[in-house]
């Protein structure tokens, strides 16, 4: 994967198409050429955006960070499944990047699934987007749907903003050093912390409003 990313990143023209870079972001291709020499930081600190910003990871206390390091796995397009505390360099790659003959959707599922299969038995909460979930399927994982509930009780699945709710959930799990080994235990933990997990349509709904900042 690193070799393929370097190849398409070597020229602006190929990087623009493969990595979906615009004029303002084209310089990000250089990250893929410096993976062996650039500095590293914990994955939980490296990533940014609406999923990770609610964590405020670099300001979190040691207990919270320790929980994340022991419980959170990130699906990296470049490196596969990595621990929240694993040191990684900056890079530019996403699940739908086009790397010539190397297809992320074909390359990662086998080795990623084998790595994830080595996890200890217990509850696996899969908060990845569909694109990243396909890079490393986890049999038996619970993938909750994030919904918004209006005043009349009607539910609407969220798209972009579901990442914020997921980030807030992981932040709260870490801050409370949650100890849950089953979905029943997670539901009990959620209720005790003002978070709403409910059964719906054969799966589970996570109500975004219950994870608004005041509730957290």
Protein topology:
Layout: H1 2-9, H2 12-19, E1 40-42, H3 43-46, H4 62-71, E2 73-76, E3 80-83, E4 87-89, H5 104-107, H6 109-117, H7 130-133, E5 145-149, E6 155-157, H8 162-175, H9 183-192, E7 197-200, E8 203-207
Summarize it:
With 216 residues, the protein is of the alpha+beta class.
What is the makeup of the main sheet?
4 strands, mixed
Contiguous low-pLDDT stretches (5 residues minimum) are none
Described by the principal axes of the CA atoms, the overall outline is globular
Q: Main sheet: which strands, in order across?
A: 6-5-8-7
Strand residue content: 5-15%
| Alpha carbon gyration radius | 18 Å
In total, the number of strands is: 8
Q: Counting H and I runs of at least 4 residues, what is the number of helices?
A: 9
Structural class: alpha+beta
Mean pLDDT comes to 93
The percentage helix is: 25-40%
- Secondary-structure element sequence? HHEHHEEEHHHEEHHEE
Walkthrough of the structure:
The structure is a single chain. This protein has 216 residues and is an alpha+beta fold. It has helices at residues 2-9, 12-19, 43-46, 62-71, 104-107, 109-117, 130-133, 162-175, 183-192; strands spanning 40-42, 73-76, 80-83, 87-89, 145-149, 155-157, 197-200, 203-207. The strands form 3 sheets. It has a 4-stranded mixed beta sheet with strand order 6-5-8-7. Strand 5 (145-149) and strand 6 form a beta hairpin. Helix 4 (62-71) packs across helix 8. The model has no long low-confidence stretch (mean pLDDT 93).
List keywords for this structure.
216 residues, alpha+beta, four-stranded mixed beta sheet, two-stranded antiparallel ribbon
